[in-house]
Amino acid sequence: MKLQHLSIIFIIIMLPISLIISAYTQAQIDTLVLQNSYDAKLMDASYDAIKAFDINTMNNDLSNVADTVRDDINAAISTFMTSFSASMGVPGGTDRYIKPYIPAMLFTLYDGYYIYAPTLTENNGFAYTLQPYNYYSVTYKRGSTYAVVNYTLDNYIVVYLKKGNEYEVRSGYLIAEDISVGEENTIEEYVPVANVATNEVNIRARNVTLDIYNQETPKGGEYLYERNELYYINPNSAKKYYAEASTFTNWVNENLKDIEARHAMRNGAHIFEEDDNTKIFDIGSNNNPEDINSRFNQHRMEVIKNSIQDNLNYSISAYAASAGANEDTKYNFRLPQINPDEWITISSNICMVAFVQGMPVGTRYYNNYSIVQSATNKFFVDPENIYYIDYAEDEKTRSYHKIDCPYLNQNSDKITGFSNYNFQKFTVKISNGGETTKQTYYRHREGACYYCIVGGHYDSDSKNFRDEYGNLYPENLVGNKQDAYYKAIGREKYNQYTTTNYFGEKNKQEG
């Protein structure tokens, strides 16, 4: 056969193959590009939603209560749907085309979580609803002892204990060692709010911690509220926190010390290995409930993970098993594998998790999830999110700092810390002569330190204050910073609202 003939045969065979391979390669490239675009849009929509949640809860005095936060969560969901739909090019940002690809959304709060998922209706359709609130709870059974423990995102727990015919309910914070702190300094500040109608309205003079109103009306201004003792926080709050936490920890050690992980049950079944003899509630220096690697914390996170997984699996599986879901998306929905580091984030922070599955993306189906955590909220006291002010500095130039910032004077005895949500912008309604106006104000007028807050990357002045796991070691803080740290943590946690505060006192009865 002549060479020319071979060349023609080669071209006839190879040219279509090369064109097919080229088209396939380009399709795969386009799919990856589109998938990356969807990833970015999903994260952007998630950040929009958590930001809406933070803003709404900061300006809602009832948002501390789990059942009343539903409106704020629904608003965050609406923000997510609108943002995601608009970024996907859906006309008008309507969520009708997006929802079928969202089998579930998760919102973790301080002592429990909400799941937003489709539920089957009477006419075999679907309606997306925010399911009832789930607590991070588990039951322990050891002999004749039953204990139901409600966990939280930190070292606060609620215990419902039954021994024989005796019932007891307690709640409180667990600490590894006794800490002694004194009273805090009393500091008063006036927070001015510009008001066109009344010039200036002075809102809520500050007393170190929360809102307290001065009895005297300032010249040329007025107060939104009269002095109300409900807004007063005793400067002994930190001292009370550590004293009460010590008492509660001793009670837990006395009554729950012998309970092991293998005793944990949910729905009548053991949820951990039967040979797991980890003593969760043997609290002390070798099991510090504020150390992320402690036995208590590892077990706490596993309990939260187990509860969330069970309920998410149920919700997503119910949606996948329905013909209605498959008609819309032709996809088999399932809970994806979430890596261990992400579970630590979910079980230790206020978070929103959004799952998106089954959306056509080139030659594949899109399957991904986003996890975003709230940075400024009043539900949860994160030691990393407490900012400190040195009130010995000049009022006109002082800033707020991280506790280990070199520019925060370690020798000052007037360092006071506040949760970071106190430094955000707040909105208030002002009524004057039948006319209501909205004004914004800041509870603190200090600027952020450019070195530690704005920049974020700084050299700590306290060696070994942090480790690679994010644990903090306040005993390594220099100068007066250690005392300021303990006072701020104690005060903020003591005054944090929890739905089970009333269990703090001994509650005991015969059965």
Return Rg in Å.
28 Å
Structural class: alpha+beta
In DSSP terms (H or I, runs of 4 or more residues), the helix count works out at: 8
SSE order, as H and E? HHEEEEEEEEEEEHEEHHHEEEEEEEEHHE
* Share of residues in helices: 25-40%
Q: What coarse outline follows from CA principal-axis ratios?
A: globular
Distance between the termini: 102 Å
Total strands: 22
Are there runs of 5+ residues with pLDDT below 50, and where?
187-232, 505-511
Compute the number of structural domains. Answer: 2
Note the main sheet.
12 strands, antiparallel
Rounded average pLDDT: 79
Proportion of β residues? 15-25%
Protein described:
The protein is an alpha+beta fold. The chain is built from eight helices and 22 strands. Strand 2 and strand 3 (126-130) form a beta hairpin. Helix 1 (3-58) runs antiparallel to helix 2 (70-87) and helix 3 (237-256) crosses helix 8. The longest helix has 56 residues, at 3-58. The termini are far apart. The model is unreliable at 187-232 and 505-511 (pLDDT under 50).
